[in-house]
Design goal:
Number of strands: 15
Strand order of the largest sheet: 3-4-2-5-1-6-7-8-15
Radius of gyration: 20 Å
Number of helices: 11
Order of helices and strands: HHEHEEHHEHEEEEEEHEHEEHHEEH
Amino acid sequence: MSRLSQLIERHWYQPTWWLTALLAPLEGLFALVSALRRAGYRLGVWRSYRLPVPLVVIGNINVGGVGKTPLTLSLLADLQARGVRVGVISRGYGGSHRQATLVAVDSPAGLVGDEPLLLAASGAPVVVGRDRVAAGRHLLKLQPDLQLILTDDGLQHYRLARTLEVVVLDGQRGLGNGRLLPGGPLREPAARLAAVDAIVVNGVGNALHLPRNIPCFAMRLAAQQLQSLALPQQTCAVQDLAGQPVLALAGIGHPERFFATLQSLGFTLQQCLTFPDHHAFTPDDLPPGDMPVIVTSKDAVKLRGVIHDAAQRARLWVLPVTAQLTPDLAGWLLSRLKIRHGR
């Protein structure tokens, strides 16, 4: 990330008057284009396409990692446990795919993207596509008996009509300075929250002023046992590595949350290595040495395909996290959608 990008991102959460003034013209242009686009779909200038089964968007109105993928994984597990036939469509950011593509657990991350690989590991059918309408149709062609489709991200993809919208917010960072890009972190105005169907707040922190009439769910990310990247069946208790120096590596939207989690678990972070979200890793990204390296599940699916040296792979440990929701979001969705399930 360039120094200018770092300066602007810091401004989003620690605003300065001169950057607010400097970025105001670009923010105004972004606001105008976004408003015209939303109005175009609302008034029928551009057509939205509705799939024949209910579709739930898991999205956000701000940039940066807020926990959409852990939430989607949690929902998939809860829905599958209830016997619901559910699938996923995703844009597949970071992938080179040109058309709707079914994701296998061993698909190259460079083809389908990192997050879809994590979702495919749940056992649910996952299709990626730059055209989400085509992705949804392809998914239903492959799995015509699906009862429900989740889309990871896509809140602003109005071409695909949705049945319900679930927005995820970072409990600590909230909406930042409340301004639109590039003057702030928002893709849409804060007022957009009043039109969604549910809000999920990831973690606690600053007080959020949320619409009172919108159902709100609390989400907590719980760390699991460490897993060896070289031997996924090999696990390690957190306390076995906590206290000794480790490297932390993250190429996600909000790496500071991952580093803070490691510190809260007792890890001594000798160095924190930060890469852009959806970064295409190379072997050179891993510094030499034999110190253990802790990585996120999202980064692990890419590192597994590029780190081939046995000694280097043995250094890498993955810290999975599980989203825990209060109250029961999956049950609420099924009730709203009137979907009958086996449990």
